[in-house]
């Protein structure tokens, strides 16, 4: 089995001219008619697109989706620049990118735009959008957990099926106590606006440090963890040559999860790690969380949508009629969770006890390292500028 689902390479020539992309999208939709037909319920509301003076719309016509000139008489209206359209075509951006970056120009409901994104991506990438029953999880105990005494092949098989894995007791309580103490000691070296930390305000009006980047450089105990063979073994479980430390300025992050956050971002809502784009260039990466403190439903546990890494669904948030099961991942101190970058997941806001956790990751080696470095830097700028301040639409489309 391979976790490498990449279909694009950075540096390849691709369409950038709006008119050429419009015509190519029309052709892709026509060619994908059979593939898209089971998911045509997503095309309930026509989508008009304005691109620098050129207006066209997408709408369902019988058993297919057609691109037609001019505006639709109803439905959504989306304004894009030529660069935004090109980034959408090339899988460098999604509607979540525009929403989180404050550049979304939309008249209509955001969830209806996400429905169209699924259809457009399905046509461009030749993938079938997810419909109920398409992902088989039968016979798999999704509550199962493992230890490092289990065989890598068994862990790998579960990860391939479910998109996540829970590893018990990887680190000792004494190791995590040292990490927690080092986090406290390092916290005063970070400040708002330093470009290497995230902050949030709690209900008492206090600004709280919630994420310390580059934690291995300021916390000796975390430096020891990243040099330990246990982390290397976890990163090798997929068997595809995943590499650690490719973000040399931020190889591992230390997170504080305070109670009562009212401003800023601490507990990110439902999303895939590729929710801002680049799924076809980088997935599947492996994200690893190390529980410095335990976590459950009242203290900030991770939740995942099993099998979502195998499904073309919204890049973030949850559609009401998605059939894939939500799995809670309560952990004890020293446990590790690992999930694939296109597995939908969220951090549950703590209400009784605050949580501490480390996050790091492993990436597939890029075929074109320099072009990928430039592209990652650009995406990193988008993430930092937006600070991932994504909120759910007022209509509350999430199942949770």
Give the tags.
400 residues; 17 strands; globular; 28% helix; 9-stranded antiparallel β-sheet; 5-stranded mixed β-sheet; alpha+beta
Structural notes for this entry:
This protein has 400 residues and is α+β, with helices and mostly antiparallel strands. It is built from eleven helices and 17 strands. The protein has helices spanning 18-31, 33-36, 82-89, 95-101, 110-125, 152-162, 173-186, 220-226, 229-236, 279-282, 369-386; strands at residues 47-51, 54-61, 64-69, 76-80, 105-107, 164-167, 197-202, 207-212, 243-244, 252-257, 261-264, 286-291, 302-305, 326-329, 336-340, 345-347, 355-363. The strands form three sheets. Strands 6, 7, 8, 9, 10, 11, 12, 15 and 17 form a nine-stranded antiparallel sheet that branches. A five-stranded mixed sheet has the order 3-2-1-4-5. β1 and β2 (54-61) form a beta hairpin. The longest helix is centred in the last third of the chain and has 18 residues, at 369-386. The radius of gyration is 21 Å and the shape is globular. It starts with 17 loop residues before the first helix and ends in a 14-residue tail after the last helix.
Q: Characterize the biggest β-sheet.
A: 9 strands, antiparallel
Return the average pLDDT rounded to an integer.
93
Q: What is the alpha-carbon Rg in Å?
A: 21 Å
**How much β-strand is present in the residues?**
15-25%
Q: Identify low-pLDDT runs.
A: 387-398
Distance between the termini: 32 Å
Helix content: 25-40%
Global outline:
globular
